[in-house]
Amino acid sequence: MKKEKILVLCAHNDDQIIGCGGTFAKYVGEGKIVKTVIFSFGESSHPHFKPEIIKKERVKEAIESDRVLGGKKITFLGLKDAHFKQEIKEKNIKEKLIALIDKEKPDKIFTHSDDDFHPDHNEVYFLVKQLVEEGSVNCDVYLFDVWNVVKLKKRNLPKLVVDISDTYKIKVKALQEHKTQYNLPGIIGLRWKMFMNALIQGWNHGCKYAEVFYKLK
Predict the structure, then answer these.
(1) 69-95 burial by CB neighbour count: b if 16+ within 10 A, else e?
(2) Is 162 within 8 Å of 30 (Cβ atoms)?
(3) Which uninterrupted H or E stretch holds 74?
(4) pTM higher than 0.85 for the full model?
(5) Which of 48, 81, 119, 124 lies 20 to 30 Å from 15 when distance is taken between CA atoms?
(6) pLDDT tens digits for 85-120?
């Protein structure tokens, strides 16, 4: 029996956990193969350290968090933070992503929502949206939240609701592997937002914790 393949496309190496970590772990528990593509090393998170030091640490953290979630592979595209729009063109990221999707042949893709106000997240969303519109993506595409507080643009789209009551603790444990990020002020706020979102969505859909995704395609 062919195992279902899931591909997560995200800007930074904790976005996949905040956005869909519970679903990620749940799918792995169901025998699905989950792989992640991270566009940046996130070297700008600690500007007072040398970029190569932060890159090394964040790669280690990404690998450890992926192990916690049960992922099969992480691919880094190596874009520089806050320079996605320029480097997507300069580094032929569109062509590389098409080739990667053709190789992996995912059954589902999860990526950023365009409600998110982070510019790097926006660029990933718009690139995926372009691939969908051009026919380079032929599977279901679901959008997750990271920084956005409210959902405005996608609220009328079909939704995927995933009960993560049994995997929420795995999601938290995976996020804790990002030791360079975990106690930054912004991440502390995201941790609370992540908890409240899961709790509210669980309440709305009859379970303890849930993640909700809007369907782009």
Answers:
(1) bbbeebbbbebbbeebeebbeeeebee
(2) no
(3) strand 73-79
(4) yes
(5) 48
(6) 999 999 999 999 999 999 999 999 999 998 888 999
